[in-house]
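We treat protein structure as text, and this decision shapes the records that our systems exchange. Because each token names a local backbone shape, the row as a whole describes the fold. For reference, a complete record is included directly beneath this paragraph.
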Amino acid sequence: MAAKLYGADNAPLKIQFITDPHYYSRKGGTEGKAYEKAEAKSQKVIKDSDLVIKAGFDLLCADTSTDIVVLAGDTTRDGELASHAEFIEMLRDLKKRGKRVYVITATHDYRDGGVADGYDGDKKIQVPAVEERHDLWQMYYEFGPNEAIATHPDSMSYVVQLAPGYRLFALNDDTNYKPEGESGSGYSDDCMAWILDQLEDARKNDQFVIAMTHHPMIAPSPFYAIIGKGDMQRNHETTREIFADNGLQCMLTGHTHIHDISVVETKKGNTFYDIACGAMIGCPPTMRNITLDPAHAKVDVETVTITDVPGLDTGGKPFDQYMRTFFFGMISELLDAAATDIDHLAEMTDAFSVPGEKVKKLGWLIKPVAKWLNKLTFKKAWRLCKKENGLSKKDIADIADHRVVDFILELVQNLYCGDSPYGPDTREYKICCGLLNVIDAFLNTVHFSIGKVLKGATSVRGLVEPLLWNPGPCDANATLPLYPLYDDENPAPKKAEKPAFDDPVRPSKKGPLVLAILVLLVILVLAILVGLIALVVWAVVAIVHAATTGCIGALPFLF
């Protein structure tokens, strides 16, 4: 029997995908210094979240080609009871307007201790929040669980028959990974067994499975896999392998607020897609249309951007551009803090899912690098790696005075918004990768592994290069090919070898030179220090000698 693509006898099915609305009730306070301080270090809209979400829901309802909306968690800012109550009413209104709504909850939807932050003038206060995570199951029961054909109450996961031949696996991964008493995002052994049973049942009934969970299962970049490791789903490498080898090809995710599509292939040759979506109230303020079409062996992914938010003052800019400007300002402040104030940097990085404690530990490295970057122009960077990048002075004339740090700001924005455009044919790529090759050459010369500082990294270029361009599926709009399920009896066909990457940037041989320069600088600094110490010793001896002989007034450096 040949390998099979399940659900291929059915008409296409379109769904609308949203995540991380982070609704905040104005009852928690929206004025005063305490609120302004919280808003200043937030990468998302807080007090006007109701306006943004309403605008997003209006866009959903304007599209009458589907009645299915799925939401992958973080319905509220921090689990405030008032926020849940008001957001649930918005979801009920969405259903009244003709949509079927399927929800899972996540990390920001409850709080240990049952309180969240509120604001009253200059004071930060406490407001009531959901304390028991499982209370959310009943609170959102009317948005999915009530239609479920199978449930796993402990994890608050469920399966819904969306249409003939299509099943939604709503997999709540929040604090469900529990090996030997630990907890974290992911799935317990019992939950995994249930999921595998449901996947087997779906295969027996020739169902195409689309799933959603909150935490990412493929890192949007190698850099994020290291700095944001705590935000990845626990055990995600193993779990996605199991899912793909049991017929689950497409997973919708949130949490990172990053607009990304990533793909991996298992050892058996099965494909797994992680389709992440930006937060409605963040940058980018996006939603997705997902059209499942197994009959034609494809999934079409389309981005819908919130550009107009009635009632919100954006200074005349479309909302998405307003959020980019706001976000760009935050990142600029972040890079300035990296060069001047590591403690302030650590406070800010929490908003980007980078632990402040990790930043403080690496402060000794971050600060000098940031200071250097703030002064670096493309012309200076080009000079440092002329042999590596192969560009002439004429080639870079129009970008010579551009600051590299501003380019880095753009790369961070592109990480969140998707599809950075600087491929191997661009000057920016050649200069950046040339400089990275020099850095890697130096590290290799001193036999220093970057992995000792950033676990999992193999080279500096390997970390940074994926921020320059996207060789995989387009993050915004893509057609993703679907494949039959391969196993031992039906192995994947051998794929044609990909052509070798023709690297336009030469490897660097400057490692020993950089080392020699640094050694000379160290020797020079030591020589200066020795000279200063000798001068001080001489002065002290001279003063003591003069004092004991009564000739202190004769010392040439005293008046």
